Amino acid sequence: MKLKVLEQNKDTLKVEFDGVDPSVVGAIRRTIINRVPVLAIEDIDILVNSSALYDEVIAHRLGMVPFVFDVKKLVQKNVCSCKGAGCDKCEVTMVLNKVGPCKVYAKDIKIANSSVKTVDGNVLLISLLDKQRLHFEMRAELNIAKEHAKWQPAIVGYSYDADAKGSGKNKVVFNLKSISGLNPKQIILKSVEIMKQRLDVFEEALKSPGKNIPEPGDETVEKKVVIKAVKKEVSDTEEVKEEVKEKKKVSTEEAGVA
Ligand SMILES: [Zn+2]
To answer: Which pLDDT does position 224 carry in this prediction?
Structure first.
């Protein structure tokens, strides 16, 4: 097998595989898409949302924001020493607190972990009108796209000349575009590491027929809702309080008329 890098930059990679069956490249593609972990916002406490968008809509938008992170400092919750309870090694706390009129961008998210930042701070999340306010407390975590597409690290595809198959000219061109905080090299290397781990599990299973050998991390995987939006009682700013008072007054008057 020969490899030739045809194109490489910050977030894309194009490689030609020579003399390899397309199914092998397909396995790499599926491993990248489904199993390479990246960082995304998972839990959101919605303290105040007086914007025009529903809680769920903003929560979904926030879940799609990609983050750069240090692969050596963060681990997936299901393999963390805290056993899924949540700690500095498996969770990143973030806060979004803005009062309109303004546009709210990804760069407005304040992140407690200095090794984490947004891939593109200029992603527009929402526009706020006068006195509209967002105040969210959020937790991001590493996970894989097998759980939810927001954790997909890259878009990957490959092409090959079907006619050349069997002629000894078995060339597959592999294309990768990162849509996460990981670069193409990190993504490829991680996918190979994961494939190796899974093959080890397969080998182990072949040695012990009938025995259920779990994949790494599968023993403690906790299934849960994708994004939970929880309303909490908090003290609003004076402006928001005023607004609430006004609203109450209007409704009381209406009741009086009726
Ligand atoms: Zn932990």
So the answer is: 46
The rounded Å distance from CA 240 to ligand 1 centre is 36
- Extract the tokens encoding 65: 């924001």
∠ CA 108-109-115, nearest 5°, is 120
In tens, the pLDDT along 218-231 reads 654 444 444 444 44
pLDDT for 97-142, tens place per residue?
A: 999 899 999 999 999 999 999 999 999 999 999 999 999 999 999 9
Query: Could you give the CA distance from residue 191 to residue 188 in angstroms, rounded to a whole number?
Result: 5
Q: How far is the CA of 110 from the centre of ligand 1 (A)?
A: 21
Structure tokens at 198: 């899974």
Query: How far apart are the CA of 202 and the centre of ligand 1, in A?
Result: 28
Ligand 1 centre and the CA of 113: distance in Å?
14
Ligand 1: centre distance to CA 222 (Å): 13
Tokens representing residue 156 in the block? 């990957």
pTM score, two decimals? 0.78
pLDDT digits (tens, 9 = 90+) for 62-103: 999 999 999 999 999 988 999 889 999 999 999 999 998 999
Count Cβ atoms below 10 Å from residue 58 Cβ, excluding itself: 22
> What distance in angstroms lies between residue 83's CA and the mean position of ligand 1's atoms?
6
The rounded Å distance from CA 68 to ligand 1 centre is 19
Task: Domains for the chain: give ranges and CATH numbers.
Answer: 2-35+151-219 (3.30.1360.10), 38-143+227-257 (2.170.120.12)
Task: Decide: residue 205, CB within 10 A, 0-12 exposed, 13-18 middle, 19+ buried.
Answer: middle
